Amino acid sequence: MPVLDGVDLELLPGEIHALLGENGAGKSTLMNVLLGSLRPDAGGLELHGQPLDLARWSPRRAAEAGVGMVHQQSALVPALSVAENLAFGAAERGFWFSPAREAERVRALARRFALEVPLAERVADLSVGERQRAEILRALGRGARVLVLDEPTAVLTPGEIEALGVSLASLRADGCSIVFISHKLAEVEAIADRVTVLRRGRVVARLGAGEADARELGRLMLGSEVPPLERGPGAASQQRLFELRGLSAPGLSESGRLRGLELALCAGEILGIAGIDGNGQRELEEVLAGVRRPSAGEIRVCGERVAPSPRALRRAGVAHLSGDRESAGLVAGMSAAENFVLKGSYDDRRFFRRGFFDERAARAAAAEAAERFALRPADPDLDVSLLSGGNAQKLAVARELASAPRVLIAVHPTRGLDVGSARFVHEQLLALRAAGAGVIVISSELDEVMALADRLLALVRGELVPVPAAADRALLGAILLGRAAA
Fold it and tell me: Model confidence over 232-257: pLDDT tens digits?
């Protein structure tokens, strides 16, 4: 079956065109054709009404023609400043690089499109939202008039999402054509002028603004209705599965330093930890994964103190779903099967026998997980770098659940997943809870943590703040911003 089958897509000047589809529907392939990274077997491409020679179409020619893309993962150089990053490939840079002239050029672009970003700061020190604005500025600085945004709000806070909306409105008013790829259907409903829906490589719907709500868009993507999430009763008990006692740890910044954290997770419970980027989420995740050593305090599993190391925590029954699958969750260049057993060790008898790796068992387990989680393509020998972001995330989730953990630390568990896949992951977390395990969900997606959690905590400047049981989204957001008392 072809990845794309007779797909047509039309972009108008000054419009935001949403491109929707479940993971593996063909969105990335279609955009790679537009960007010159892939050559189609048939069909054509026109820009400003002029047909293009696909035999010569390439990423460089696409950039020269004004086509740019902002990917989910930042392509900026962390050690360089924003201004230095934006100087690469700038359309108007000239032969000699002038820092002052470059800074003024970028400031003018930032003012024009409401994309303010600190130019002198290193990219490594920026928030996720600031990095994204810098990426958009870089594309615009290279002359982009057709801009593809791939899951632009996946890791943004509510305030950053609002700011992005203002910038997109400014770009649209200036005549830019924007392809908006997202799984957040409520945002698509609010922002898009037109929508194209792909399912299994084919266009199944073309809609104008207001012709379909989020529920109908979800049905078109999946081919069926998505029922409301049924949380059901947990297997709640007073048994403490996991505890942090007076835990402190150094941070990447002062606001990220962890300060005397106290936390108790009971059996049959989902504990949600909501936070805004830079307030200690990354530091907390690394401590719970055993890769950042605490400066004080302890971790206990079922009452027993556990050394803060990856192997000790995993032996104690603590699984960790990384919030950054590209750099910490999966290894590009290795197959799906190899990644599936990556966290195993020589005493894991499922995949290691008498010190030897059982490749057949690993491939069989990966194939079974691929079928259960509907990975596309379902090939255990496929390099994970060839999987879409959503399918890569499903592989990572499948690996952690396969260990039957007592405790699962799930960080951004549905980032990059479509509606159906996200629902499946949520159901798996709820099933783990119903079986008596404990789950900690760390996420900046307020709707996600509020829908899943039995209890909520807010991580604010490295401290855990209890959230009232009756808190709504507005109150939770205010607590995260430090504007409300818990």
Answer: 776 667 889 999 999 999 987 788 89
Contact 413, 433 (CB under 8 A): no
Phi and psi at residue 242, in whole multiples of 5°? -145, 135
Residue 18, Cβ neighbours under 10 Å: how many?
A: 23
For β-strands 46-47 and 50-51, DSSP reports them as: antiparallel
Provide the CATH number for the domain around residue 165. Answer: 3.40.50.300
- Angle of helix 359-372 versus helix 389-402 axis, rounded to 10: 120
Q: Tokens representing 163?
A: 């700011």
User: Which two three-digit tokens encode residue 445?
Assistant: 């997606």
The two structure tokens encoding residue 29:
């392939």
| pLDDT lower than 70: segments of the chain | 1, 89-97, 99, 155, 157-158, 234-236, 344-348, 483-486
> For the stretch 36-63, what's the b/e string if a residue is b when 16 or more beta carbons lie within 10 angstroms of its beta carbon?
beeebeeeebebeeeebeeeebeeeebb
Pairing of strands 146-150, 67-70: parallel
Ramachandran category for residue 443: left, alpha or beta (phi over 0 → left; psi -120 to 50 → alpha): beta
Q: Say how far apart CA 152 and CA 144 lie, in whole Å.
A: 17
Quote the pTM value.
0.77
Residue 5 lies in a domain: no
Count of the separate structural domains present in the chain:
2
